[in-house]
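Objective 1.3, modelling of assemblies. Example input:
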Amino acid sequence: MEKVYLCKTSDLAENQVKRIDNSEHGDIAVYNLGGNYYATADLCTHATASLAEGDIEDEMIVCPVHWGQFHIPTGRAQGFPCEIDLRTYPVAIEGDAIYALVEVAAPALIAKG
Amino acid sequence: MSNIIKTIDVTDSLENLKEVCDIEDGRISGRIFYDQKIYEQELEKIFARCWLFVAHESQIPNTGDYVTTTMGEDEVIVIRQKDGGIKVFLNACPHRGNKVCFAESGSTRGFICNYHGWSFNVAGNLVGQHESGIYEASDFDKAKWGLKEVAQVESWKGLVFATFDPEAPTLQEYLGPMTWYLDALFDNQEGGTEFVGGCIRSTYDCNWKIAAENFVGDILHAGWTHDSAARAMLGGSVAKVSDFEESYSVNWNGHGYEFALDTVGNVAVLGESALNKYLHTIKPSVAERLGEFRANMIGAVSSCTLFPNFSFLAGQNTVRVWQPRGPNKIELFTWVVVNKSAPQEIKEKWRKGAMMTFSPTGVFEMDDGENWEYCTKTAKGRVTAAQDLYIGLGMNSRAEETSLPGNVFKGQLNEANARAYYQQWFDHLSTKRWSELPNRNFGKQEAE
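Predicted structure (tokens):
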């Protein structure tokens, strides 16, 4: 388990999402949903798109390119054309710093159909 | 703003235009309704330059709401932005030109081209493509390849207009004092207007100008052309316009409004007494808002065209665009406009009344269609097309002493507005840019 620094809580307003570049694990999207922080992979599982450029609607992130949706807390793919769940990361808050806890060996992601 | 459309080159004007349109001499010829070369000039010198009606704000209240329409023969998408503004894009993918939106209206997060999967957001920016990785190797700059945005978009009291020409004057300047008269329909109650129902689309085998000209100032045809329809709807003939004590033809920059001051002459032909009653009920508040003069216009015998191809009838509340589809074909888009504050059943009666009278099967619309098609078709004959057509009624009818704004002429049985309309047409076809366009207005900018 690796602790990856994301950003300060003060850098992420409510209902905002931010992309944190990370060449090792892949870019990470960090979210503030009503004061609760979440982290997921930033790359859409359907096509090349940065989810941080999408809109948050309730607890969903809407991909900016083909408008598929993922449930932010669980990463579950919720709307066509997204069928593969999004990788999520547990989040740790220390002071005003937000960290993602990244399993070094990522679980294999297999297409559903 | 790299996604703004490229301005097209303007070709030289046709020679001898005066042979087909000599307004001082009170004549035009049928060639202007049938000639392909003239039509191509119109597309670039009128439809690619003028302010064109594209939507009513009420059709697209929320972010991502859109309608599709055309500006001349150019297909466009009119879409509400996140910041509340409105953008107008060419409905064509900047990769191979495929149409990106096939619906007439809707609400969306963006548009994805069917061909190579180029995806655009509500702001028209290119946000992705199928196999997007391969574009990077070609030094592709995404920011330059969004949907192409028209040069200018502006709203006036709910009516949204757009122009392809960055040099076009402001919409306010373009409409000038006509807005004072437009208020009689579009701003006679607090809250303004909205469109009810959808867009009714139909086609006619006629030239676009013959229809626009009918609304710019031809009430003369009504008593004759529509006699049987009027008898069906009213149980009697259309009001004898020459009996009106006071009526006017007013124009500016080729726009024209002809009107009487009888309050309900137009609305009466819908055959819905509740609508007459509604107008009489609101009239005192209109008088307070706009003054007695314009309160008399709210449903009076009248018609209006804003150059080049947007028209309406106050009272019938039909709003329309005569979309050009070649020199001898139009696609007619019509909507029904109502006061937002009107009771629901009144709005419904207007929707139904307009359908009965001014829709493809409407009793008045069919009368007009027949005439306009044959005004166009006779010009197929080369000899016929070359003959003079008379357009000289009311040559010396300028209202010399008037407090009214605009170029004011006495009487609505008058071809003054038609002449001003064709003069504007002639002036656009004779010039290459706005700065060269002659100013033929002589009236007041504002009411006194």
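Chain B has 13 helices and 21 strands.
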